[in-house]
Structures are given as structure tokens and as C-alpha cells.
Amino acid sequence: MHSISNHIAEVDARISRAAARCGRDRRAVRLVAVSKAQNSDAVREAANAGLVDFGENYLVEALAKIADLCDRSLCWHFIGAVQSNKTRDIARHFQWVQTIDRLKVAERLSAQRPGDAGPLDVLIQVNIDAEPQKAGIDPAALAEFAAPLLKLPRLRLRGLMAIPRPEREPERQRLAFRRMRALFEDGKPPAAEHWDTLSMGMTQDFESAIEEGATMIRVGTALFGAREPRPHD
Description:
Number of domains: 1
Helix content: 25-40%
Order of helices and strands: HEHEHEHEHEHEHEHEH
CATH topology: TIM Barrel
CATH architecture: Alpha-Beta Barrel
Structural class: alpha/beta
CATH superfamily: Alanine racemase
CATH class: Alpha Beta
Low-confidence stretches: none
Number of strands: 8
Strand order of the largest sheet: 7-6-5-4-3-2-1-8
């Protein structure tokens, strides 16, 4: 059985090969390890192997791990649906929120972000395939949605995030990623000074995402192995 460090090395090699295929620098792709449903020991092993960015969906579980690993300089990304009654803890304990699709939630995060913590980096979640069961804004609404976000003093808008419809064939995977890249490049709000992040691609499709311009990928199973499904907090 391979260890987490072995898996990290394998994923890193796949990232490097994907970047090389499209003439990109490996350093232009940021790897977020999706550590939901993993225990603190697994996260620590991944951190010992060099990973810094960790993505969590479930707040109560995440807060326990953040406390357990407070001795490490890690960067925590909230990548689940943000409930209004949980914004205070998210604003206090995370460095990134990748799933902004409601202005009310963004306003609460800004108001509750501690003054000594620095701005909270956020991404707008886009429902690129118009799937009714998924969160995210309509691509056509980007400019209207982004304008008030840019005025929130404790948030820093960094770009876009998406979870496209799963596809087995790489060519079909690339279609949604290509649309996201076009939206990221052509839809940049004029006042977005820190617009530099396109978060897309997971275990099953991150290589296609990199080839289509992802600057951040979110990988769980390929790093930690399969996990048991669990209810939300």
C-alpha cells in the first residue's frame, strides 16, 4: 500500500507532465489537498511531505483539524457550501473561501473577518454546466455579481471556481474547462486588482483542467485514497 507521501509524489509528477504538455510552468499550478473526511494524522503526514494548502467542506470537522495542526503554517480553504450561520467561524479560521455565490454570505464573511487576519481570499463559484442540483452563479451574471463583492473591505476577490459535470473522455472534460478559462480571462472585472486564480479540476480530471488553464486544482482521492461518504455538519 502506498503512503500519502508516495501519492503526493505521483500527483506532482502528473501535474508536471500536464503542465509540460501545454508549455506551462509547474509552479503556476497550486495543489489544494481535499482533506475532508480525513483525520488530523493524515493531514499532518501530507504536510510533512510538503503540502501547504488543504480544502475542507465540513466546518465542525475542519475546525478540529485546524486546532490539531495549529503548530503548522498551513493554508485552509473552505470548499463546501457556506451556510449563513457558519460564516463567523469560517471568516475567523480560513484563509480562502472558494464557494461564493450569494452576496449575503459574502457580506457576512467580510463583516466577521478579524481585523488582524488580513483580507479573506475568495473565489466566485460558477455553475458552468447549468446543473440545477449544483451551486454557483450563471456565467452571464458574473459582472453584476462581482461588482458589489469588490466593495467589501475584508474580502479579496481572486477569481473563479467551478465543478463541471463529470466526463470520462478528456476531450469532453476540456469543453467546460475551456469555457471557464474564457470567462476568467474575458470576464475579469475592471476593478479586480488581485484576479489571478482559476480553481478547477479534481482527481478524475485535473490534468485536462491544467491543460485548459487551471491555476489551482483540488485533489482528494488521488492523495488520500477513497473516503467514506458522510453527512454535512
